Amino acid sequence: MGNETATATAAANKADTGLARALAWIGSGPKRLLIGGRWVEAASGKTFEVINPSTEELLCHVAEANSADIDAAVAAARHAFDNSSWVGMSPHARTRALLRIADQIDRHADELAAIETLDNGMPLWFSTAVATTAADIFRYYGGWCTKILGSTIPSDASGFVYTLREPLGVCGQIIPWNVPILMASIKLANALCCGNTLILKPAELACLTSLRLAELIQETDLPPGVINMLPGFGATAGAALALHPDVDKIAFTGSTAIGKQIVQASTSNLKKVTLELGGKSPNVIFADADLDKAVQAAVKTFCGNSGQVCSAGTRLFVHESVHDEVSERVTRLAATYTVGDPLAPDTKLGPLISAKQRDRVLSYIEAGQAGGASLQLGGSQWSGRGYFVAPAVFDGVTNGMRIAQEEIFGPVLSIIPFRDEDDAVFKGNDTTYGLSAAVWTRDVARAHKVARALKAGRVWINTYGEADPAMPFGGYKQSGWGREFGQESIDAYTQVKAVMLRM
Ligand code: NAP
Ligand code: MG
């Protein structure tokens, strides 16, 4: 047996172990809500079903939180904020607490990855990478605990003026189903490192890794009530959290439409709000780019996680002189992307999250054709079980078409030619969104010029989709308010107190 084969076999065995542990945990009975350090049924006694999107089979039942449970969780989080050792603890102790969570994630990474794949449908290689990133996020925020600084303000000799950066209090957090373990880790680690307590509501369509993560965090001995985990539906549990008068901040990741409702609900008590919303990101290829790399990345970004990624480069702008070549190469490469069982190592695209999401994506493929765009690839219905959609590539797209303006959240690419730099920037910015963008060129001056001109919270040059917890992430325009990661995210989970002393 060659070294490569031995490594592959060892990796497969390791994955099997994770899968076995994932199945054992999922099969161990209905999942409950975490409120005040205890796992409890929903007050209503209701549960909902969790479905495996690649088989359409029932995985398990989960307690369905509603407003009564949210009330109980907010009370528990408030009590923990006001009374537990969590808030006044030494920053070094808080760092150690976050690092312990990171170690827990690493120890259970295979299991978490397999749970994510069974629940969400993403390929196992992808969920494995994501679980590792989740641990890194806790380490990143663990490092911040000792670096959340106030300042001294110049004053006359008999005075002393300084600022303290203090936690906000009770944070409500709402996340989507697309990369749940990552979304949960970002929210939890950021709030915890700043000394807040929190209530997290995962999306009901994929909530299992959030629940397992909460169990693993409980094992690290956080005081009861510091984290509360309440799966439930958005219209009930989510809305109750956003409206709650004793929640100090709401951090929401999801669609722009629901983000607007969150803002309205937040006026009940003027809670602080941060929003990570949708995108329709431009990926701009100039004629002088390394086309091999650009084509690879263009396909990877619109197919990654079956297109269910907020920052996906779904609008591919190509200089007219290389448009035909790039369009042809992108289509040919996308056709080789394997769709199927997310547990199989060579699968590039698993299923979409639900039948509803699949039908929505298929309806956009129909709308693209009806609107006059030319479908180069994809579009046929998947026969058999699972909510699969193969990559679809549209050429001959104009910016006014629905497929070029609306977030599809599926593996659908729109290719649009441009004339020159100004045309690329104008078309790239012609959207209500502003989450991400990319530019491909060997001309350094042009790269920086276009990066500045594109209205997006993150711009990549000669790469796409690479992430680092130290890089701020968030939206221009209707893609959001505030930033996750970086100093900006510390500011978003703390508030400043100015103190004046007269001696
Ligand atoms: P969504 O429908 O907006 O839901 C997001 C979360 O909000 C879910 O937990 C949902 O609960 C909850 N929710 C729904 N209605 C609510 C309400 N009235 N009040 C409070 N909470 C409510 O979005 P999605 O379809 O799950 O996720 C896809 C969207 O998320 C896309 O637009 C994508 O771009 C965006 N996203 C953005 C980022 C980013 O960082 N910018 C990252 C990932 C995804 P239930 O689903 O359980 O009902
Ligand atoms: Mg949903």
From TrEMBL:
UniProt keyword list: Oxidoreductase
The protein's enzyme class: oxidoreductase
Protein EC: 1.2.1.3
Q: List the SUPFAM superfamilies hit by this protein, alphabetically.
A: ALDH-like
Entry-linked InterPro entries: Ald_DH/histidinol_DH, Ald_DH_C, Ald_DH_CS_GLU, Ald_DH_N, Aldehyde_DH_dom
Q: Any idea where the Aldehyde dehydrogenase domain is?
A: 39-499
**Which top-rank group of organisms is this from?**
Bacteria
Q: What residues make up the catalytic site?
A: E276
- What terms describe the molecular function in GO for this protein? aldehyde dehydrogenase (NAD+) activity
Q: Which family does it belong to?
A: Belongs to the aldehyde dehydrogenase family.
What is the name of the protein in this document? Aldehyde dehydrogenase
